[in-house]
């Protein structure tokens, strides 16, 4: 039977294994599958989804699955050499889950990649759109030198509160500022002179283009703009897929095609999350 749980910007499927469900349609490790921006998102919390919405969600689920165990094993294998266990990061993940935040943070390997991008360019000022529990913020903030600062934007009060706890626990209180509110409003208030070295965009995908346009205004020449979740297990390139998040990524790609402000590429980051990729753009 399917059971759904309401999340901030989508519904999670908490049980998707009716007897006889083919193995490749089952969630491989997690007992629930988060479907951000699924058709279920518009259903009020006190109402049950209709059968037709459930069917749509299930189609969306099938498109998301399977997380191939091979990629889980692959990330675990590589991480065992390159990413030592880290108490603060593990605390951030657990504390976030314990508070009911959705498990949609970047993976450890992706977090480290962000960290290394920031280090490579000697970033001192970083902007993040979409904080959640502060997992990627910890990776990014740790790349900053003494006096460096990360500003991270979050719309959800509970997420911001948990993120603050996690950042405090990681000893990063003085380096990271969480700004609560709709990211676009916050971004528009940041003066152009602020000049960031790197922007990481990982919030509501429908607004990707708006965020990138603001990032182009705020990131210095030679700086980097990274956008998460732009491949979506190939769904962005699948014309039959018309999810809001997919449309948001396509709109961004259309813009980047002729954008003279950045030079960009998309790179698939298949790993333990089983899907996805970054856009990596250098500010020209
Ligand atoms: C994918 S999560 C961010 C994950 C985080 N970057 C990490 O990897 O640890 C997206 C976050 O964006 C936030 N968000 C969604 N819409 C937003 C908006 N309009 N303004 C600011 N934050 C938003 C959500 O509440 C959620 O916490």
Automatic annotation (TrEMBL):
<keyword id="KW-0949">S-adenosyl-L-methionine</keyword>
<dbReference type="GO" id="GO:0008171">
    <property type="term" value="F:O-methyltransferase activity"/>
</dbReference>
<dbReference type="Pfam" id="PF01596">
    <property type="entry name" value="Methyltransf_3"/>
</dbReference>
<dbReference type="InterPro" id="IPR050362">
    <property type="entry name" value="Cation-dep_OMT"/>
</dbReference>
<dbReference type="GO" id="GO:0032259">
    <property type="term" value="P:methylation"/>
</dbReference>
<dbReference type="InterPro" id="IPR002935">
    <property type="entry name" value="SAM_O-MeTrfase"/>
</dbReference>
<dbReference type="GO" id="GO:0008757">
    <property type="term" value="F:S-adenosylmethionine-dependent methyltransferase activity"/>
</dbReference>
<keyword id="KW-0808">Transferase</keyword>
<dbReference type="InterPro" id="IPR029063">
    <property type="entry name" value="SAM-dependent_MTases_sf"/>
</dbReference>
<protein>
    <submittedName>
        <fullName>S-adenosyl-L-methionine-dependent methyltransferase</fullName>
    </submittedName>
</protein>
<keyword id="KW-0489">Methyltransferase</keyword>
<comment type="similarity">
    <text>Belongs to the class I-like SAM-binding methyltransferase superfamily. Cation-dependent O-methyltransferase family.</text>
</comment>
